[in-house]
Specification:
The complex is a heterodimer of chains A (546) and B (225).
Chain A: H1 3-22, H2 28-32, E1 53-54, E2 67-74, E3 86-88, E4 91-96, E5 100-105, E6 111-116, E7 134-136, E8 139-143, E9 148-153, E10 159-164, E11 179-181, E12 184-188, E13 199-204, E14 210-215, E15 245-247, E16 252-256, E17 278-283, E18 289-294, E19 310-316, E20 319-327, E21 332-337, E22 343-348, E23 355-358, E24 364-366, E25 377-379, E26 393-395, E27 400-407, E28 411-415, E29 429-433, E30 452-458, E31 465-471, E32 480-482, E33 486-490, E34 495-500, E35 506-511, E36 521-525, E37 528-535, E38 538-544
Parallel strand pairs in A: 1-32
Antiparallel strand pairs in A: 2-38, 3-4, 4-5, 5-6, 7-8, 8-9, 9-10, 11-12, 12-13, 13-14, 15-16, 16-17, 17-18, 19-20, 20-21, 21-22, 23-24, 25-28, 26-27, 27-30, 28-29, 30-31, 32-33, 33-34, 34-35, 36-37, 37-38
Chain B: H1 2-21, H2 30-48, H3 71-80, H4 92-95, E1 105-106, E2 109-110, H5 120-123, H6 126-134, E3 146-151, E4 156-164, E5 168-173, E6 178-182, E7 186-192, H7 206-218
Antiparallel strand pairs in B: 1-2, 3-4, 3-7, 4-5, 5-6
Chain lengths: 546, 225
């Protein structure tokens, strides 16, 4: 072997070695550049900007009619299947409720291994669900119903460490997918119907030790504490139950905070109740608050602001601007400057009767009398909200923001006295909704004016709706857009469908037999693009007919 | 007043007896007891007396019957009456002048277009039943909504909505056909806001109306129905 050949072999070997080492090694750099490897899905919303937009374009408006089922994974669980899978180099990782991690062949659905955590406690309001995992290097991270954060070896499913984040006895739970930033894993706690005191915390990815913590309900001495009357802050809620986002340039992580407790009776918590129903922007290294914006001060409608913060860079009034796009459960669509928190736009995307608009600082102007009462007060949007945790999408190609919306949905909000008891429901009333939460498709007898679901496409610059795709029933399905200007979503009535992202025209649909209750995602293996979504207790994976 | 109190206590024991006879124990709410008391006064006490013991061999207050040994027996006697005696058939109006079986069914008898009434006495109070008979448009339950559709061929079909989604609609029509259509195949599809049930305000006299309500209240869906 001459020197030239030896050098060539050396380069090839080195390249192969490097490839084999990097295969499955999900560095944080890879997560930051996730859009550049669209064959994978490395974090809950696709990238840390959370646009749920993929650059894959093999499936197009022209050929989407040829989509067909490739494989199904049937969960051994009767709980709602809300997880968005991760896909790393042909391996899919997902969570079967409540806390069973599954590694599958992403091309065939065959299972490599299963790791089961059996939560001993846990009283989530709305199902023992889990929305997914995070990954860093070869370590998967899962929050659990009993408020643990567990690190799992991605190769064999063995637990590496298990940290107790909060007390399950006090009804703290974790339902969302964690977010990895640098060498930390960030999770927040749910339990807003049980009088928790919420917090977001970062843990060392390799040891599970807590690095920083941000209390969503500030205690004595912390800014914002003055927005809570008496001792109400101790049981003030402020849960986190959807995954946040991250801007690497600003080094800020953004999270949506849920409702104050008790939900429908604010008498014992006078004040704005920071940081409930707010977006918080934290320094990713320290957890220090950089800014916040509160969507619904002193909320009494359970308008959790837990939606996924969608980060976008766009022209704003002639200048480039880094913004957050946010369709809130309270019925308004917002645009905020994500460097400063400045309120740029607020406009209803469904009917809103609790507020009439905004003052110059972006604070909502309340409509007198529109508060819960003993006899009940009719409010739009209803308790389920104009939207909720269902992932929206932003497509930079169309410039449109896509919202899974509940339209014409209202509730009669009834207020009642309530006392805090550890681990027990702490809601302070009830509500009667025209369209109730109902996890399984029931016969639908409703007229359109009594509530329907829709994908609504909104122009972020104006808040105006460009088009709407109506569904007879409401939707708990998230939205995925792709670089071929396709939009994938589904609804409670059990269809998964593809729309033209520019016009809203229906291009393809599949009857999946149960409510779509997850955010669709896409990936490719060996050059073939797949689209995956959960409905009922199954994960469905579609691809083009060969 | 004394007669009223007696009726109340007799009815309470009668109710307890009925519950004992029924295959499954029922828990009667105060409003149901009150409804039953009024029915007893209006329909039973005239012959059975305020103590429920005026008919020889029958003591309703102490669970003594001539012919009934089960809950179903009691419902059957109240519905069909006892031929050759003064005990009337409370279902007579339901099956006869009221023509209720044209749209409704009980015990697999009648039409399945309208809601099955085998359990109507268990899910609707007397006052609600009376209101439905007199003002059928006052409240139409979601599951009893009617739709009207016109196919591309120009055929008009009206029926009770069983389900719908974005793309399709399912219904049962007056011929008791279970039908499913793609909405894209229809020229028209709309809800019918008015109930197809006629008002019985001028069709039945007060006695007939009371008999009909009594019969409906007796339909608790317990036993082999």
């Amino acid at each position: 072997m001459n020197a030239r050949a030896a050098l060539l072999v050396s380069v090839v070997l080195s390249s192969l070695l490097s490839a084999s080492i990097s295969s499955g090694q999900v560095s944080f750099e890879r997560i930051l550049g996730a859009d550049k490897e669209p064959q994978n899905w490395l974090t809950y919303s696709g990238t840390t900007l959370s646009q749920r937009h993929s650059l894959l374009n093999q499936i197009t408006p022209a050929n989407v009619k040829n989509l067909e089922l490739q494989w199904i994974y049937q969960a051994r669980s009767l709980e709602k299947f809300e997880a968005t899978p991760l896909v790393v180099d042909g391996i899919m990782y997902t969570v079967q409720a409540p806390n069973h991690v599954i590694a599958l062949d992403a091309a065939t659905g065959r299972v490599f291994w299963t790791y089961s955590h059996h939560p001993v406690r846990g009283r989530p309001c709305c199902g023992r669900v889990n929305r997914g995992l995070a990954i860093l290097d070869d370590i998967l991270f899962m929050g659990t119903i009993d408020a643990h954060l567990i690190a799992i070896d991605a190769k064999n499913g063995r637990p590496l460490w298990d940290t107790t984040v909060a007390s399950a006895r006090s009804a703290y739970t974790i339902t969302h997918a964690p977010l990895v930033i640098k060498d930390k894993v960030i999770v927040g706690t749910a339990g807003g119907e049980y009088g928790i005191r919420g917090f977001l915390a970062a843990y060392d990815a390799h040891t599970g030790k807590e690095v920083w913590r941000f209390n969503t309900i500030p205690g004595p001495g912390e800014p914002g504490h003055e927005t809570w009357g008496g001792d109400s802050w101790k049981t003030g809620g402020g849960p986190l139950w959807m995954t946040g986002s991250y801007d690497p340039v600003l080094n800020l992580t953004y999270w949506g905070v849920g409702n104050p407790s008790p939900d429908w009776n604010g008498d014992d918590r006078p004040g704005d109740n920071l940081y409930s129903d707010s977006v918080i922007a934290l320094d990713a290294d320290t957890g220090m608050l950089k800014w916040y914006y509160q969507f619904s001060p002193h909320d009494e409608f359970d308008y959790d602001a837990v939606q996924v913060p969608v980060l976008a860079d766009m022209e704003w009034q002639g200048k480039p601007r880094k913004v957050i796009l946010w369709a809130n459960r309270n019925g308004f669509f917002y645009v905020l400057d994500r460097a400063t928190g400045q309120f740029l736009l607020g406009k209803p995307f469904v009917e809103v009767t609790w507020a009439s608009g905004f003052d110059e600082k972006g604070r909502p102007v309340l409509v007198p009398g529109k508060i819960p009462s003993a006899e009940g007060t009719l409010i739009y949007p209803g308790n389920p909200g104009g939207t909720s945790w269902y992932s929206p999408s932003y497509n930079p190609r169309t410039g449109l923001f896509y919202i899974p919306a509940w339209v014409n949905s209202s509730s009669l909000f009834v207020k009642a006295p309530v006392k805090y008891r550890e681990g027990r429901e702490y809601a302070g009333g009830t509500n009667r909704s025209t369209v109730a939460f109902d996890w399984s498709p029931a016969p639908n007898f409703r007229k359109e004016e009594e509530g329907y679901g829709a994908v609504r496409a909104v122009d972020p610059h104006t808040g105006e709706m460009r088009w709407e795709f109506k569904m007879a029933d409401v939707t708990e399905g998230g939205i995925l857009t792709t670089a071929s200007d396709l939009l994938f979503s589904g609804g409670r009535e059990g269809y998964f469908f593809a729309l033209d992202a520019r016009s809203g025209e229906l291009l393809w649909k599949a009857a999946v037999g149960a409510a779509v209750q997850s955010g669709p995602m896409t990936y490719s293996v060996n050059g073939k693009q797949y689209v995956a979504v959960n409905a009922g207790t199954c994960l469905f994976v579609f691809g083009l007919r060969q | 007043m004394r007669a009223f109190k007696l009726c109340t206590s007799v009815f309470a024991v009668f109710l307890a007896t009925i519950n004992t006879l029924s295959a499954k124990q029922q828990t009667d709410t105060p409003s149901e007891v009150n409804d039953g008391r009024q029915l007893f006064i209006a329909n039973c006490a005239v012959c059975h007396g305020p103590d429920g013991d005026s008919v020889p061999g029958v003591d309703l207050g102490h669970g003594k019957f001539k012919r009934a040994s089960s809950y179903d027996d009691l419902v059957e006697i109240i519905s069909a009456g006892v031929p050759g005696t003064a005990m009337p058939a409370f279902s007579k109006v339901f099956e006869g002048k009221g023509e209720c079986l044209n749209c409704h069914s009980v015990k697999n008898k009648g039409s399945r277009l309208g809601p099955d009434l085998a359990e109507i006495g268990a899910v609707r109070r007397m006052i609600e039943l009376e209101r439905s008979l007199l003002e059928p448009n006052a409240e139409i339950l979601l599951q009893n909504r009617m739709v009207r559709l016109v196919t591309r061929d120009g055929i008009t079909i009206t029926g009770r909505l069983l389900n719908q989604d974005t793309f399709s609609v399912q219904l049962i029509d007056s011929k008791e056909r279970l039908l499913s259509f793609q909405k894209s195949s229809l020229k028209e599809y709309a809800f019918v806001d008015k109930s197809p049930m006629p008002t019985y305000r001028d069709k039945l006299n007060p006695g007939e109306l009371a008999d009909l309500v009594s019969y409906l209240v007796s339909l608790k869906g317990i036993g082999g129905q």
